[in-house]
Each structure stands twice: as structure tokens, then as C-alpha cells.
Amino acid sequence: MLETRFEAVIRATGHGDEVTVRPGGVVGSVSVGGVPIVVRPKIPIDRVLFMTAYAADPFRWEENWSVIAGVDDLQDGMTALFVAACHRTLQRGLLRSYRTVDADLPMVKGRVRWNVQARRLAPLPVACRFQVHDDDITENRLLREAFGALRHSRLTDPALAAGVDRLWRSLEHVRPVREPLVALDAISWTRQNKHYRRILGLARVVLENSMADLAGGTVGTVGFTLRLHDVFEQFVRTALREAGGLTETEFPNSWRGRGLSLAESGQVPLAPDLGVRIGGRWRFVGDVKYKRDAGFGHEADLYQLLAYATATGLPEATLIYAQGPRARIVHEVRHAQKRLYVRHLDLSASPQEVLNQVHALAERVNTRQDIELSTDAWF
């Protein structure tokens, strides 16, 4: 479990059965056969939850912060955040919409499915297809799956567990979803369901990182973990997008599979963490690393950043680390006319101060109206 879930490296010390365990970039708590395993981040847990909450709902981050400030348990904090968001959204009732139903009935309702009915020897039942208007729709089914996962988690706060149970009971009547993450990706956002977008963003976090009680032989496993690189990357991307007034089309969550390649043949695909393209022209490209840096950037990260600048045809690219000195580092690449910026965020600061740091970067993204930029407009 340490190796697979926490990406930990385990080495023998040479002293009997003693080993050293070095966790990767995953934090959280897991119970394996009744034995609890807890991996804590170096920054306060409420800062991790803040980044998660902001990425899901940048407009209500202050409300969300009031729920999670000072929380010292990742699972309780994530659950409290999700429950509070659902209470706000569902206070006017569950979303209702039309859905298509196929059923065998003793009478005709809606339209007859003749491709099915024609193969039957008896006239009854009749294979019908009709529409109903109710709350048994994909959006509510996904919330049901998320609360189902939380009901099997081990929460330390009884009041929080009771809140989860109440919301579960309000959704228990809707049908389950076989592959919730696939169904979540397939949702089309409209004026009717857009108010669900934020809570389903949090539902995605719950579904992706919760562990149900698995019967792996005689050992049961249950818990909740977060991969910090993913949390940090999505937070930076969302904060830059909101501060720069950009859309998800101009600044998407992923550039994977969108045709960016280092080679003319297209055989070396690239997927930068950060990228802005407007009107067919690249405006900004960068990468995000959840790691400590001494100040000048890791060599492998700078090589990767240079590849992004080369492939996009931009004169510069930006590398953002989660920890390091607040120095203004600019590498002028020999014979390439490229500038590589290295910047560091202080995630241990207050949420508003962290956002101010990101907004300083966003000013550069937002003011990029042409490919040519000056090198002195930073911070």
C-alpha cells in the first residue's frame, strides 16, 4: 500500500527487518487491515484543502476557507468542504430534468420500439420508449456515488458523519452509476445544470481519491489520499485563468492530445501544464512542479521547459515551484533566443497571500497581447 498508493520508496537499512520509508507526493490516511497509515504534507493540511477548494470553486473560496481553516485531518476536511458546498447548492432542491426510459408496459406509452416489439410472439407487454421528468439524472447519481464513498470512510467527527448520512438519504433513491468518472466526463454543461458544476468538481476529487473497503484476501483497505502535484497544478492553473480573465478554451486543463509536438513529424508530443492559446497563436506556456527548489530550477525541469518554448515558438516560458526562494531567476538560453523564468510560491502563507503571489504571475499572462515581451515586467 505504501508503494502503490503513496508512491513511497522502501529500502532496507541492513539492521534486521528495519526499513526506511520515503513517501512520494501523496498525502492522506489509509487503514490496511485495521492498521492506520497517515502521511502528512509539509505545509498545513488546510492549505492543501484550500487549493482543492479554490480549483473547484474560485468564486466562493472565502466561504470554503471558513469551513476548512484550522482543519488538521485531510479526510474530515475534504468531507466538510463537500458537505458545505452541497448544502448551499441543494437548498433549493435536487436538479430535475427529462430522461428517456425504455420499458415493457401493458399499454402503449410514448413510442413503441418496433425493432424490439416485432420480434415478440405475444402482443403484450409492449416495448415502449418515453420521457419522464424527475431527479433520477446523471448529476444526482454522481453525487450519490460520492456520498456513498464518504459513508464508508472513517470520519472522526460524528456531526460530520451525520451530515453525510443526511445528504446520502436525500439521494439514495436515485440509481447508481457503474463508471462515475466516465459519466462525469460526459456531462454537457448548460444553463440548467451549471450550478452543479462546482459540487461535481468536488465530487470528482472524492471519487478519484477515495478507497472503498476492498476485500483483498483477508485484508480490508479504506481511506482517502490526494496527489499533491495534481492539487497544486490545478490550483495554479485555475488561479491564473481566473485572474487573467481567460476561458477554458483559451487556457484548458490539459493540452494532451491537442497536437503540440517538438518534432515536425508529430512523433514527440508535448503536454505542458500551463498553456494559453488565443486565435490560433500561443500566448503563454509554462510548467508546474510540486517540489522544493534551491532557486535556479532543476536541470531536467529546465530542459522540459525549453522544449515547450521551442515547440510553441514563444520567446519565453515559465517554471513554477511550490517551494523555494522568492528570487527573480531568468535563464537566457544560449544560441536559442529563449528566456526561461523560474518562480516559487510560498504555500505556507495565508490563502490571500498565496493568491496574491499567483496574481503577480497572472499579470504577465494577462498582458501578453503580442508575442514580443519585455523581460522586466515581473512582480
Describe the 3D structure.
This protein is an alpha+beta fold. The protein has helices at residues 45-56, 61-68, 74-90, 114-117, 138-151, 158-171, 180-185, 197-209, 228-244, 299-312, 351-366, and strands at 9-12, 19-22, 26-32, 35-39, 97-105, 111-112, 126-134, 210-216, 219-227, 274-278, 281-292, 316-323, 329-333, 338-344. The chain has a five-stranded mixed sheet with strand order 10-11-12-14-13. Strands 4-3-9-8 form a four-stranded antiparallel sheet. A hairpin with a 4-residue loop joins strand 13 (329-333) and strand 14 (338-344). Helix 1 runs antiparallel to helix 2, helix 1 crosses helix 8 and helix 3 crosses helix 6. The longest helix is centred in the N-terminal third of the chain and has 17 residues, at 74-90. The protein is globular, with a radius of gyration of 25 Å.
Residue share in helices? 25-40%
Beta-strand fraction estimate: 15-25%
Helix and strand pattern:
EEEEHHHEEHEHHHHEEHEEHEEEH
**SS-based class:** alpha+beta
Strand order of the largest sheet: 10-11-12-14-13
Count the DSSP helices.
Answer: 11
Low-confidence stretches: 214-219, 367-379
What's the alpha carbon Rg, rounded to whole Å? Answer: 25 Å
Largest sheet: 5 strands, mixed
Structure characteristics:
25% strand, alpha+beta, 379 residues, 4-stranded antiparallel sheet, 14 strands
